[in-house]
Amino acid sequence: MDTPAHRPYRHGDLPNAMRSAARAILDEGGPDTVGLRETARRVGVSATAAYRHFASKEDLLASVATEGFRELQGQLEAALDEGDPLASLGMAYVDFADKKRGLFRLMFGPVLAERAKYPQLDEAAQAAFGLLERAADEDAADRRSPRAVRGWALVHGLASLTIDGLIPKGEAHALAEEILRAKQARQAN
What we know:
The chain is mainly alpha-helical. The chain is built from 9 helices and no strands.
């Protein structure tokens, strides 16, 4: 009887492949459905190979969430170049949530409530929040000013209502834009 040849571990970029597979699982079923074994299976490697890069499910999810906050920051930075920075950032935030629902739920969900355990995640989250805070209250010395928190609460609430289907999908963008632009118009007067 022939013994099967031992196939050595070879994968071009396993951490990125694992993050990509985890994001697909997030989109299908949310953060609770992501596991290292299932993610490794989808990538076509053993669980042992996955553990070489991520010590736990939480480490994998923190890495995915870090990636998500960096993407959110990129979208927010691009929105700063548009006419009304606060409304534009708000729309970018809502659009990000709508297009990347599983990722958004992970980023703001209870699975990673202790972001400080993951310095890269905490740094990426603070950078994204910093853009919202500066746009909401450019002159505030305290970035946790009531105006900044009120602005974040508004866009996060709109994003949550959108991804939870409480605002009909076809109406979400127009409704969010109307709310954000009306809010800015009131503040300008």
